[in-house]
Amino acid sequence: MFASILLLVSWLASPAIAGKAGSFADGGNTSVSAMMMFVGNKDKVYIIDKAEGNAAQINGHPAWGAVWDFNTHQTQLMDIKTNVFCASGMHLPNGSYVTFGGNGAIAPGGNIGSVPNGQGAASYDATYQDYDGSKSIRVLNPCTDSDDFTSSNCQWFDNPDVLSMQKKRWYSAAEPLGDGSVALIGGFVNGGYINRNTPNTDPELEGGAAEPTYEFYPANGRNATVMQFMIKTSGLNAYAHTYLMPSGKMLVQANISTMLWDPESNTENALPDMPGSVARVYPASGAVAMLPLTPANNYTPTVIFCGGSDMPDHLWGNYSFPNTDTWLYPASKDCQRLTPEPLDGSAPVYVQDDDMIEGRTMGQFIILPDGKILVVNGGLNGTAGYATNTGTTLSYNQMPFGMSLASGPVGTPALYDPNAPAGSRWSNAGFQTSNIARLYHSSAILLPDASVLIAGSNPNVDVNLTTYFPTNYQAEIFYPDYFSGNTRPVPSGIPSNLSYGGNPFDITVPASSYSGSSNDAADNTTVVVIRPGWTTHGMNMGQRFLQLNNTYTVNSDGSLTLHTAQMPPNPNIFQPGPAMLFVVVNGIPSNGTFVIIGSGSIETQPTGAASVLPDSVRLSSASGSANGSSGNDTDTATNGGVSHTAMIVGSVVAAIIVLGVIGGLIGVCVSRRRRAAAQKNTSSYAMRNAPGGSGALSAVYGADSSKALRSSDSSAFSLQPDYDHSQQWSGSTANLTGDGRLSPYHDAPPYLEDSRGPHGMSMELDPYASQSRMSTSSPHGRRY
């Protein structure tokens, strides 16, 4: 805490931005390759890798978990017991995070672990000391620098004997519902390139290799149920794209098919197919995001799909490998928008949008506080995944890029403006090009200072530091356009909780946060809530942006009072849980403040009437006192990463503690949006109303004789006899714009010893499912 006070004094004395617009900065070493990431709180980003031979060791085995510090860019290793390879993940309403599923235990070289389970995988491996993660539910309570990281309360709870899914799921989708529970959809059972055999005579189960069901966390007595859409989309249905709609239905997109699904009744309403037969799901891996939800669009969701691949169906191959040399097949540039629930009641249709600047597979969308969307990472050609051969290149020694099925890394980010006129929505002017290839198993996420953390890349079955595209541990930080100034807003009065409807609240922006006319600044100020999501495989599961409605009062001292509405009174629009609140003045965001949306519990969320806001009050004589908007070339690395600490609200068990740490300030640039000069006294939201209302890890492992094994088991990803590590690649010389073409588990932590779940959630074993039931009626504390 003393260190935080010293930093606060320093920031108040010198509100300079650390970072240059359009540039990359060193983000430090991640210790484990960043296949998955999420922002836990003001201090920490959590990083997860698959179980593999990382040099970093913890408790006598390679580490595949770490936590990265905003301020120091250093990592601390974390022990994860099960294999998290290609899991899914999501937040919970109280600010905890959960990962779901993964793969069986693996040994060096991606081989099946030393204790086979008789189902094409293994329960444990003695070398890597990883357990089968295919049914695991892992829960983490994010901790801050002030917490004791050696405590079990700050570590992953990972014990499928206690908490697990009903089904094995690898590459499953995860999407929160309006009550904070999570829908888990589809996935593989074991390893493979795409989710089918050839010939595809069993699209439902693929001989026991595919999982076509959905289930919920917590289960609360609900059994896993077949989703017909997973059968229809057999093959290309891993990591389906899922977005909850205001009605409570869910947009689901896989292969080239689209539907609206009702989680309550399991009814499916088909929507149009993807134009051009462009696949966006893994391993085509297009960039997909929900566009910002704003008062101007009445919080009506529109989803944008960009990139991926239009490779013909027969070339995708099967579980073992693709039937073509994918690295020669150009990725798509195509972008399509879809509004699944149009307000006018019309039928949903895909709408052609501007093409991307270049084709990308494995591109990733990051929604920025100014409402624009950054795309990073990916390749010009090919797909995600890796293999030792294809249907046409039969030997690993002939594979030109090692195990990578993609080529032509795209190192230059691009910016998409959803409100720009058609034909002018994409730009990369002024953006540096990274010399690090970010291909398969890369990740990116928005940080609380509104920069973007980029890490990972490992298109290899195990750690390989000498191949063409090697395992990568180097993180980077990218600074978007709004880092061009030297001051940024420093709001105060942001609450720690936002409700669905209810009384508005006031945020104060001091005159020192901007320059020029106060009226103009007030007209160009927005208050936005962003959930960065849980990121893996070019996806940010749970990522959303919502602009709160507000009016304002311009005060004589140049300060602005923002009269701000609560969240729209429909939890389906922005599900309960953690988020960051930014105040954006003239296109320049404040540092994000962590807030909890909703009650903090898995339950039917309380809702109130839409907030009623007063009229705006202008004052022509008032002005800001900031020192203009000149650029600042100070590099983050020379400032100890000070800009990464914001005024953020940390949540701890049974109490909300405001840490109030104010970050550095950045200056003024022109915003794309102006609010009306004087807004009338009105209800802040005119919208539709929300609808009413395991197996053991040691002796108990055994074969499931009820399922036949598929013809290709986890050895599809293991090293072949002719595998070598001779191919070299230098990140500084590669063409980044395209080259053409049985140790038991520890005891349960204290919060489970009395049959209570993490963070005090009451748990009872569900006799009809492997998953434990979590009582939604029991209040529980919050913690970051």
UniProtKB/TrEMBL annotation:
Domain Glyoxal oxidase N-terminal: 205-482
Species the sequence originates in: Lentinula boryana
Domain Galactose oxidase-like Early set: 488-596
Residues that span the membrane, as ranges: 646-670
SUPFAM superfamilies: E set domains, Galactose oxidase, central domain
Signal in keyword set: yes
InterPro entries: Gal_Oxase/kelch_b-propeller (IPR011043), Gal_Oxidase_central_sf (IPR037293), Glyoxal_oxidase_N (IPR009880), GO-like_E_set (IPR015202), Ig-like_fold (IPR013783), Ig_E-set (IPR014756)
Keyword annotations: Membrane, Signal, Transmembrane, Transmembrane helix
Signal peptide as annotated in the record: 1-18
Biased composition (Polar residues): 726-736, 769-784
Highest taxon of the lineage: Eukaryota
This protein's record includes keyword Transmembrane: yes
Protein's name according to its UniProt entry: Glyoxal oxidase
Residue ranges of the region described as Disordered: 716-784
Coiled-coil ranges per UniProt: none
